[in-house]
Amino acid sequence: MNAALPGTVNSPLVASLLSDSDKRAEFLGKIPMARAADGEEIANVIAFLASDEASYVTGAAWYADGGLSAV
Questions:
Q1: How many CB atoms lie within 10 A of CB 8?
Q2: pTM summary value
Q3: Which of 14, 33, 35, 64 is deepest in the core (most CB within 10 A)?
Q4: What's the helix, strand, coil split of the chain in %, to 5?
């Protein structure tokens, strides 16, 4: 089994947080890439894990969080 572990994604769920410039700067400042992901970026990770290209990938947790978990 593999898992995609997304970080913050530009979505309605975080829209109010990201629309406030002070909160946005504080929150995104903790992410090394200094931005939220687009949904397509997370979908690409999931599509890869579901594809034949990942046929030999097992037991992996793929963090797609802009580097937050690496800090």
A1: 19
A2: 0.87
A3: 64
A4: 50, 15, 40
In this structure, which amino acid lies at residue 13? L
Structure tokens at 22: 């002070």
pLDDT < 50 stretches in the chain: none
CB 42 within 8 A of CB 6: yes
Alpha-carbon distances of 22 from 7, 16, 35, 62, rounded to whole Å:
20, 12, 14, 30
Cβ of 2: how many Cβ atoms within 10 Å?
15
In contact, 36 and 18? CB cutoff 8 Å: yes
Query: What counts of helices (H) and strands (E) characterise the chain?
Result: 3, 2
Please name the helix (run of DSSP H) or strand (run of DSSP E) that holds residue 51, with its range, or none.
Answer: none
